[in-house]
Amino acid sequence: MAAAGAAAESGRSVVLVDRRPHLGGNVWYPVAGGPPVAEAMASLRRLERPNVRVVTGAEVLDHPRASTLLVGAGGTAWETGFGQLVLATGARERFLPFPGWTLPNVTGAGGLQLLAKAGLSMKGRSVVVAGSGPLLLAVAAYLREQGADIRLVAEQSPNWRVWRLAVGLVRERDRLQQALDLRRQLRGVPYRYGCWVVRAEGDGKVEKVVLRSGRREWTEDCDFLACGFHLLPNLELAELLGCRIRAGFVAVDEFQGTSLPGTYAAGEPVGIGGLELARLEGEIAGLAATDQRPRAAALFVERRRLARFRGALDRAFPLNPQLRGMVTPETIVCRCEDVRAEAVASYRSGREARLQTRCGMGRCQGRVCGPATEFLWGWNPRGVRPPIVPATVEQLVLRDLSNEASTAGLER
Amino acid sequence: MGAKLVQVTIDGAPVVVPRGTSVAAALLSTGLSRFRDSVSGTPRGPLCGMGTCFECVVTVDGQAWVRSCLVECVDGLEVETHERAP
Fold it and tell me: Are A20 and B51 within 8 A, CB to CB?
């Protein structure tokens, strides 16, 4: 939104493609049937210009040739040409396998919050929130506000790391205040460090969760287990285009430019840093992409300030190697193809496992099991093939027809 | 309050939900948590809530493999659960 708004001020034609039915991303997404969130209003209003076209409920499927994207929505697809491109593909949660993680009502942490925002009533529902990262607190506070009974927040990272983050935030009062506010909203809810889910159990859906902290193991009854291990960048489109990836993120220059000319990236694909940083990077990318570089450069100082938080987060929430112990031989690792740990653990690479067992070959295209097998066995999760989202035959035929048309044009 | 209601059909039964409710949230709200069966026949429901994991796919108005977390309920929408993977 920030990139499109900034780019629109150049007067150029801007197309904004968003996967969900409304704009706002995961943080500013409106509550079901409700108005846009107040904080998003200014950004939305900025897009109300004749040179901006907003396309919601649509996704990029492919990059059939230079300066062209194949965009799909609801069973149809069309090509969109572009001069400059800003990738703001956001982040998803990291999921790690444990026995019972495929049971219904075991969701992501942010996943359950999104479902609640989308209209699922949390009133009287008991919830265990588990995993890692600052999102856990925000999710627990939100769900509690919606009437959920939060049994426990289980953070896998040990307390000294999280406290060190808090100390590091002293210079950034807003963020520290946010964290303290969340803790206040969660008064009475146990928040345990160095604690994680060993397994989820239930008949047809989750009914109880076994947790471990140190040597102690105990059971909590719950209607939902909301479990996610911090965030991962959505890199599929950047990879498809061929942008250089460095240490798990899209490599960018000071103007948010990727290794490809005319292609920019902003927000979580560049580094997990939260809403404010993502907005500022989007602004810089949108300005830089539309010959407004002096205005973009004026924002560098502010970006440097916000980016300090980025490294601090990574240091506070590294995954404890003991989490690998959650996986038993029978644990499903690839949820799309129901591939169990015992079937793949002996392979040396994800590629080998894929060829032999279909691990990572399902509809999510390894978005869930890729990061999991990277953590469990060190397999490289990179490597995408078009279409980067499952497409219907009709959508791909549309692509092929337009390819033929362009080839025919060249021959003439 | 003034939330507008819409009626959808879930596995043949009429269900009334506030407009703007996602199909995934509507299914869960009726107490249904088994959206589909996996390739080996285990029950599955929503995981990521944002269109990434494809666990919550159902048939919507005859279109198979629709991520129910990405679609909003409108009047007359027909949803069928329990798809099996091919």
Answer: yes
Helical ranges in B30-71 per DSSP H: none
A95-229 and A2-91+232-314 share a CATH fold = yes
d(C-alpha A23, C-alpha A1), whole Å: 8
Rounded to two decimals, the ipTM of the complex is: 0.96
- Does A224 contact chain B (CB < 8 Å)? no
Tell whether A20 is within 8 A of chain B (Cβ). Answer: yes
- Is CATH 3.50.50.60 the classification given to domain A2-91+232-314? yes
pTM beyond cutoff 0.90: yes
- Please state the domain extents for chain A: 2-91+232-314, 95-229, 327-377
The fourth-level CATH superfamily of domain A95-229 is FAD/NAD(P)-binding domain (3.50.50.60)
CATH number for region B5-84: 3.10.20.440
- Using a CB–CB cut-off of 8 Å, the residues of B that contact A are 3-4, 17-22, 24-26, 28-29, 33-35, 38-40, 42-55, 57, 63, 65, 69-72, 85
CA distances from B3 to A148, A218, A258, A385, B16 (A): 21, 42, 44, 43, 12
pLDDT 10s digits, A323-346: 999 999 999 999 999 999 999 989
In chain B, what are the domain boundaries? 5-84
CB contact under 8 Å between B50 and A26, yes or no, is yes
Burial of A140 from C-beta contacts in 10 A (0-12 / 13-18 / 19+): buried
Q: Do B24 and A115 touch (CB under 8 A)?
A: yes
pLDDT band at B2 (very low <50, low <70, confident <90, very high): low
